[in-house]
Amino acid sequence: MTLSRRSKRTILALFVLVVPSICYMLLRTGTNYYHSLPVYGPDGASLFSEDFSDSAWHQIDFSRLSGDGLPEIGVHAPTGNRNKIYVAGFFRENVNASAETLAVNMIRVAKTYKDMERLEFITFIATDSASSSVTSLEKLLEHYGANPEKWKPVRLPVAEAAEVARRMFFLHPGTAADDPGQPLNDTVVLIDSHQRIRGYYDGSSYFATDTLEDEIAVLWKEEMNRNDQE
Question: Which H, E and C letters describe 197-224, residue by residue?
């Protein structure tokens, strides 16, 4: 059975109309490669990056922190060096299975971007003593092959680490009454070169950290475009 010329034209017209619509829907529901990431502030407030000026939003002030390992990080924020973007996670000195999952997911993201020199990972470690030497978390990172040059351990007393999570990152730290190895918070935070929060991700989820991988690429493109305009 052969189609008439009119039927062929109808099918062609439907094809021209339907295929672009399907592609648009896939792009809208898939991974975020096409839209700027939001910028987060207190109480979960957020704006998309094109909606605000660079200086008019909450910034992470690394210079306010104190503790071992901070001089390397502090070089960037106080001097205005805006070359680094960060992924931050919140741990306790000892690690349980949940903390190990969080660490492994962060390591997986770090390995994906092993050649991106401007991306670094911060592990806030709540300790009983800010002068603690090598924590079990750092041993865990070493065991899974994390590149030590990309990781910044920040050891802080438990109370101070919890305060940093609350006031600087707007996270609610959990208690360790039942399990001292539980992460301070399961959330992983993406921070841009202006020290602004650009994303929150469930670090215990493989799929959520896949989204983090994708959105690092989105942020990287934004950073490159900004550099070209400056």
Answer: EEEEEECCCHHHHHHHHHHHHHHHHHHH
DSSP letter at 174 equals P
Q: Return the number of other C-beta atoms located less than 10 Å from residue 134's C-beta.
A: 9
DSSP class of 24: H
Show the DSSP H helices in the chain as ranges: 5-29, 70-74, 76-79, 97-112, 136-143, 158-167, 206-229
For the chain, first and last CA: distance in Å? 64
* Closest by Cα among 156, 166, 216 to 187: 166
Q: Kindly give the interhelix angle for 97-112 and 136-143, rounded to the nearest 10 degrees.
A: 50
pLDDT at 74: 40
pTM of the model: 0.75
Cα–Cα dist 182/203, whole Å: 13
Mean pLDDT of all residues in the chain? Answer: 76
The phi-psi region of residue 34 (left if phi > 0; otherwise alpha if psi is between -120 and 50; otherwise beta) is alpha
